[in-house]
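The following block was generated as part of the benchmark described in Methods. Ligand: flavin-adenine dinucleotide.
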Amino acid sequence: MTGSVHDVVIVGGGLTGAATAIHLVREAKTPLSIAIVEPNEQLGRGLAYGNPEADHRLNGPGSRHSIYPDCLSHFHDWYMAQALDKQDPEACDSSGYHFTRRYDFGTYLNAEVRKHVAQNPSGSDIVHIVDRAIDVVKKGSLFQIALEGGDIVSARVLAVAATPGLANIPPVLSALPKNGSAFLPDPWDTDRLRRIPKSADVLILGMAQTASDVTASLLKYGHTGPITLLSRRGKRPRRRPPLNANSYVRDSVPDAEKHAQFIGPDLTVKPPSRILQELRREAHIRADRGESWVPTMEKLSELISDHWHTLPMAEKMRFLRHGKTWYDVHRFRLPPQIESRIEAAQARGQVSFLSATILDAKPNGSRLNVSLRERAKRDVTTRTFDISVNCTGLEDRLGQTNNPFLHALIARGFAAHHPTGSGFDVDICGNAIDAKGHANQALFIVGPLTYGAFADQQGSIFILRRVLRVLPEILRKAVAR
Ligand SMILES: Cc1cc2nc3c(=O)[nH]c(=O)nc-3n(C[C@H](O)[C@H](O)[C@H](O)COP(=O)(O)OP(=O)(O)OC[C@H]3O[C@@H](n4cnc5c(N)ncnc54)[C@H](O)[C@@H]3O)c2cc1C
């Protein structure tokens, strides 16, 4: 493989990388040679859609997840055609929406890639290089990407769809033995999760989706001991308003509706702080009327995704400092199945939520002593747990990752940190901007690592819409041989 030259090399073959390849070969007018460098044997799964754990469900209905944003029912139709609903009766919520296993969505993504590898409208080649990129240099007009296995693959255009993975373990816990019985650093290590004694007193670090997945799984395995979810701010996903058959009637918010509310009289987007204020008011009014606040949230997420790049840096920073937590807890809701299981356990006193900062954690025999200070309290208390599970989420700060390829992009001068501190700096076309402020026309960054530039690049539909916007530029560059 060393010496192979491709029109486009995509590093990272999760949802973003797989979708980029699929849309490229569908849109290209002439055959392209595309390589995807991804260590996972199955393209499309990435971090979110590879664990077969039954309780890891999509956080929105299957009918809102699709690799084709202009055909939102595509995954749902595939799912029903495969009769996967029969294998997972719990997926169907009482309102008739399917909150499917994330693994099933990964199977769909993988099937779509395989379909396009076998045949595609432009007659392009897609090869999967099962390896990890570790370095990149430029030779003439080509990127040369060094792989862990020793090969080098060359690209006219490089598209980075890799992510740093799990966040680092909080420093206060980093000295704990990773394989000891009192600390589980990887929340997706289902084998170890299943081996936690049923009566154990469990401390979950985090309160968001991964923490909820782990809690729901433990409860399903028959856990009887107490489970405490801890985070500094104590913010957890807001309860999903009751769904009904009309909860998701719109595939997207019409532009006119967004613009009427968010574009000021001078035809510029209002500052996000003001938009947030207005939307919070709207959400309260809806709630008072007994209506769902979800449509309000959908307007906000579409607006953020459409206009973020036009906002002044000071406004972006203000939103990230003051609005993001509020935004995230409303935006990333839990699947109803998970939500109700956790709520039932909370009602019987088995699950509790603690807003506190951990000051110290030390082994105590086979257990763990944790010193913590609860929010708005002065006293430090020490509690003993049998095990702590790290569910602090994904890393978006490139400086914190140990992914050598992502470091190399910066160290070699091809890309730079986004000024917000979140991901890479990219221009509106998705081109990486280097430390000197120059856009690198042959280097594209797509997916969650463009959060600073485009915000909300976590939900699959928002990622895919952005991929589609960047696609013409990738194609233009790839065919300009
Ligand atoms: C637990 C969890 C649940 C989620 N649930 C939902 C949901 O229900 N609905 C939704 O819309 N979104 C959900 N998301 C958001 C999710 O981020 C996106 O939907 C999607 O997974 C992002 O895909 P990605 O390909 O960009 O990143 P990833 O899934 O992180 O994939 C990145 C890929 O890059 C590869 N890689 C990394 N470094 C290298 C390297 N050096 N060389 C080669 N390959 C490399 C990795 O192996 C990985 O496969 C969830 C996310 C998580 C983490």
